[in-house]
Amino acid sequence: LPAAAQRAAPQPLRPVPVMPGESTAVRAPDEEEQQEAREPTRVLAAYAPPWLISLVLHMGLLLVLALLYLPHLLKPQVELEVVYAEKLGEQIEDDLFQMAQMDPVEVTEPVFSEDLNPVDNPLAAPPNIEVVFDAVTASSDIVAPSVGMALSGREKGMKKALLGAYGGTATTEAAVRAGLEWLARNQNNDGTWSLSGPYSGGSTIENRTAATAMALLAFQGAGNTHRSGDFSRNVSKGWAALLKIQDQDGNFFTEGAAHHRLYTQAQATIAICELYGMTKDDQYRKPAQLALDYCIKAQSPEGGWRYEPRQDSDTSVTGWFVMALQSAMMAGLEVPSPSLDSISKFLDKVAQENGARYSYKPGQAETPPMTAEGLLCRQYLGWDREDPRLRQGVDYVAVHPIDYSDENVYYWYYATQVMHHMEGSDWTRWNRVMREEVPRHQVQTGQERGSWPPQNDRWGHHGGRLFTTCLSIYMLEVYYRHLPIYKYKLQ
């Protein structure tokens, strides 16, 4: 109504609620009620049709909703796209990896997040290491990056950069995360893991020490320790259990088939040396050194290792011990140079094609798995990237790429490391298949989601689901698990 009409309109008498005992006579409104009746909003409510009131109420509701969601609508929307390194930025083209020259890396948050500042130069040349044994300085030919280099790729500041530089993707990181979550769900109450269950597809041979060591390597490969990381509680419980198993001589093996004994020792030694190297926690130094000393004592006269201490050698077991000694050197522990020299002598005995290919034992034919393992040992024992023998061996591995019609995660685990250390076109071609095929064959739904089934794998019936899952996780952590050995300019 117009303002004049509002002032002139007679105010009708309204019924007033009557309390018991009061008079029922109609009375005139008092001054306060007359003042309320003259307010425009009340007059509008009294005389407006119902549809108008409904319109006003709905408009008000829409305005409130708009104010609530407007900031969200104005924010840039982030769409998670499965992208590869070709879309994430250029591969490294300088002999030093300079953070300031990189485009932003558009990958999801890495599995491990620690409040560490990004580094300026993650691919600086690895130093030559001098090791001390029995108070005698012994220079080794092994090209061992220091702990600040080789294991630092797992830190937040390094991890994002290395993922982008070496072709890690949102898909590979999501697969790592799902794999670690599967491991976390299957940890026993006492902190250990099992080869035989409680999951489906377990091994028929139990070995909780080996299972626990492999699980811890997967968690630590993504940067988790007993002190930090999303899975720090799992790591802490696992190590509390594993240290109870280690005896006074440094031996970890307590159960399983006889041929598990030294495999178990090597895996546990790698894990504890990595943990000490990553944290420098003094409580782990003595157990790590004890484990390493046991490894040295168990080395056979032939220069390698096999199933029992000081008895025979084969390439498969020896490869795990090379990594154990390498992990010890990364952590700053004492590794005797004569042990490293003996390994090279054993590798010469299983070498084929002048060192380009390798067999399981001397006199046997070469195979792709043993060749990959032998070449990785040679890389860590000092062979130059341009060594013709290494070059020929890498070409041999390259013609046997990841192929799930002939599944062999043990071979792929070693070959992936060899190619990553080679970098350049060797790594690009290998990774193009690896980063797609390995996540694709991960279980996506159900109780075993995040794991890799063992049924079709060459060695899956021996190791079971935990074995195939852990080695698959190691492959997808390769971008940052260990930094590449060689510093060179990519072509």
Summed up, what is this model?
This protein has helices at residues 3-8, 31-37, 40-47, 50-74, 85-88, 147-150, 156-166, 170-185, 208-221, 232-245, 261-279, 285-298, 315-330, 337-350, 368-380, 388-398, 409-422, 424-440, 460-476, 478-481, and strands spanning 130-133, 136-139, 351-352, 357-358. It is mainly α.
Give an account of the 3D structure.
- The chain has 491 residues and is an all-alpha fold.
- It contains 20 helices and 4 strands.
- Helix 9 (208-221) packs parallel to helix 19.
- The model is unreliable at 1-26, 74-141 and 143-148 (pLDDT under 50).
Question: Could you outline the blueprint of secondary structure elements for this entry?
Answer:
Blueprint: H1 3-8, H2 31-37, H3 40-47, H4 50-74, H5 85-88, E1 130-133, E2 136-139, H6 147-150, H7 156-166, H8 170-185, H9 208-221, H10 232-245, H11 261-279, H12 285-298, H13 315-330, H14 337-350, E3 351-352, E4 357-358, H15 368-380, H16 388-398, H17 409-422, H18 424-440, H19 460-476, H20 478-481
Antiparallel strand pairs: 1-2, 3-4
Helix pairs in contact: 8-19, 9-10, 9-11, 9-19, 11-12, 11-13, 12-13, 13-14, 13-15, 15-16, 15-17, 17-18, 17-19
